Queue: 2 jobs
Job 1
Amino acid sequence: MTPLEILSAAIAGRPAPRIPVFCNLLDQGAWEMGVSQEEYYASGEMVAQGQLRMRGYYGHDNVWSLFYVGKEVEFLGCNKILFTEGGAPNVADFVIKSYDDIARLEVPDDITAHPAWTEIGTCLRILKQEVGATHPICAYITASTTLPALLMGMDKWMELLLTGPADIRDELLRKCSIFCQKQIAAYRAAGANVLIYSTPFGSTSFVGMKRFMNFSLPWMQKDLAAGGTAGIVYYCGMAPFNTVIRPVMSELGIGAYYISPMADLAEAKAIIGTKGLTCGVIDDIKMIRWTPEETRAEVKRICELGKQGGHFLFGTGIMPQALSDQNIKAMLKAAFDYGRLE
Amino acid sequence: MLDAIIKAYNEAVFETDKDAAFEVVAQALAAGMTPEDIVFNVVIPAVEEMMSHITKDPDANLAQHFMTAQIASAVTEKMLEKFQHPPETIGQLVIGTAFGDLHSLGKRIVIGCLKAMMVNVIDLGVNVPAERFVDEAIKHNAQVIGISAMMVHSAIGEEGCRKVRRILRERGLEDRFRIVVGGAPYRFDEQLYKVVGADGWAADAVNGAKVIVDMIREVKAL
């Protein structure tokens, strides 16, 4: 079976030789290609080749069309990114500096015609051509309730959300939701089939249950209503969200859940059961200082907790650049070993 | 009366309702409480209550942390204008986000809580070079250097806390300052603060304020 077929089998609960094994290698691509981050992320071809080379070297199932978190705000006017060689890029200039900027914020009609799409489109075209028939292609979609943090900074967004004028807040969210819907459609059309829907405000670690039900959930419904939930993976930026799995399932109909390493995986699996795909995620920050043996033991624990009854995927977090090659290999070998189903 | 005011104020903070908190304060002033009473017997205990709540309650959330700090800081600022005598500060903190990192939310929550707790805070902003943390700590006679890092590379990289520690060691300043770190990477690995050479950390920004106050007292007692 191809990795894409193995993923489909895991989602549907059909027999497969093993669980799907995802590994989120992003910034390491610049090393792989022997260029600076800034050069790497300036070229869709480079990002695609980096993804293909890393997948070929490590053997995991997925490739990514994500450049870096923050790339999406380039569609909305951001033109300053801070690149650092040791880690992920940062948004260095916020598009929204005052509430007046919210009224001026424009969502492009056709985001695939925007210059910011050019390299993403190139990357996806290459990935689709090279591995689209056999491997899952991941895209990163920022939820409407989270996108403002990239547009104005997290603290200013919290201030507007919790104490600011409701009409201005809603105008911003409406624009962000439209952009989110356009992104989902564009990535799907270009060949991405696993859409990581990043929605930290969909976790009760960010807002209380009352605000989740009255604020986060309705906006998530708007984000997903037009395009549906095919291929959507619920992800809260590594924050735990077991408390909301039931309402997300019933109200949004999402079928895959990327469980935080800080959450109780057994509890999540018990809630999701055979109704969806549980993704067990390793703590790859702790893994920086683990030995390969410790890494292997943790992968074993995750796989044994999750794979019973199927409907399970092994995945990683943000895979920091500080992780050793030896540890990444140990993790993936263990995931293939302990993820065997036959 | 005090119990009823504390209860009403705590409820407003827990519900992240800033207007309701100010309404309670206005009622307390009208009922004859002094601004000093409000800060020391209502606001600071409410911050401490939230610290305890966050530790015990898995449902405590970021919105509560943020509003606890915002409300505490705003009420304290208003009350300080009305104090009979300027209050004595506990000590000094210099705080910033590590080099290569532009996140500021955690730092803002810590600062809000510490202002209410009578700590003199010098905010160095974001993307702060290690040398500047040390230079500003010396300049302001701080007891504690606070380093926020939301990204793995800024938390563990050579330009962040590790370098601040190295500079302190090279300049013979390790007895004079404590380093406290905070941010998401430290939550995923509770031993990480030791790896990067910090003296303390907290899992959330509200409790970070408590760790900092304890460290200020520790340094002042030397």
Job 2
Amino acid sequence: MFDDRSPIYQQIADKIKKDILYGDLSAGDQVMSTNQYASFYRINPATAAKAFQQLTDEGYLYKRRGIGMFVSDDAQAQLRQQRREHFFADVVAPMVAEAKAIGITLDEIIHHLTNKDGTPGESRD
Amino acid sequence: MEPPVSLGIEVRDLRLQYGDVAALDGLSFSLSGGKIYGLLGRNGSGKTSLLSILAAFRRKTSGTVHIGGQEPFENERVTAEVCLIRESGGDVYDNTRLEQLLRMAADLRPAFDHQYALKLADRFQLPMRKNVQSLSRGQRSALGAVMGLAANARLTMFDESYLGMDAPSRYAFYDELIANYTENPRTFIISTHLIEEVARLFEEVLIIHKGRLVLHDDVEAVRSRGVSVIGPAEVVDTFTAGLTVLNGQSLGRTKAVTVYGTLDDDQRRAAALAGLELGPVSLQDLFVHLTGQPEAEAAR
């Protein structure tokens, strides 16, 4: 469920951001409570609370006192904007580096991506 | 119900001497209370000695121990609020049936939640009509878990007792602990040398070694404080000069070291430029590196 690569609260926050980005959580949806999170993932409630604090600080979630936490109206748009800014550096650059290292040309990548039916192209030896 | 005011714990220069051996050797720390604390230490590091003094099972040699501002030893006002579950549960009750034992606990301790104890006993499938002495090790462990959780004490301590349970029972214990703490936040101290499994339950950790405090901090802060650095030996050596290096391993020309401390962005960038690979260190690995050498080497 969690790995050692980053703090657990960070991993929880990332998971919720991903759910918002992919539409599994929509604007106005209520998210699980800190305590539900703690018991579901068997973690300290303070750790879960830290994740929610970060998400509310960043504006992706908002609190309604006594009711719970909800997804902000512009959370998805905000996340999309942020991810678009980093897409080429974070996603494309490592792929190009890997392709270079193993001898796959840019043309092959483009061919793969633009296959008529959109399915992955044949792999080549 | 109003949440109870948490019991803070102050320990200053605590010593416990067994003849020539100092089980606790000037231990100091302070806990604000109301959290789940992990007490980590190797075998013989002083965990049980510390918990026994906090629970007033044992008299300290010197130093200060305050629980909620008061000395616990021979102080009923404090001990009524404290519950310690040890590995070798109460042998006094060997000939007592479980159902009697739970009733006795309810009679002796006003805060003991008998209904909850029965529910927990059922979850751990404890044989209520059997005597304590006929229980298996795992069942004794589970009984400890039941007694500790149902005691409802403002300071509840588990001294590795839960480690006798098998994995499904331990997970049930963790579930119940989280549910119980969420419902009724109070101070828990859980000692262990098997860290990986329980690290997520803790808010703060204390590491003790040879009767002294090595580290006390927020668990997530501790986790972010270890960094592994891997790369060509000479580059690693240059980069880590002046940093706190806990251990090192070499494989051919590649060297891997564990650095204790947080690297800033400049240092991370410099490492990346130098072709070094930085990685996280698990709490358990950090614990192993911080508490030193294998026993054979320590004895030399």
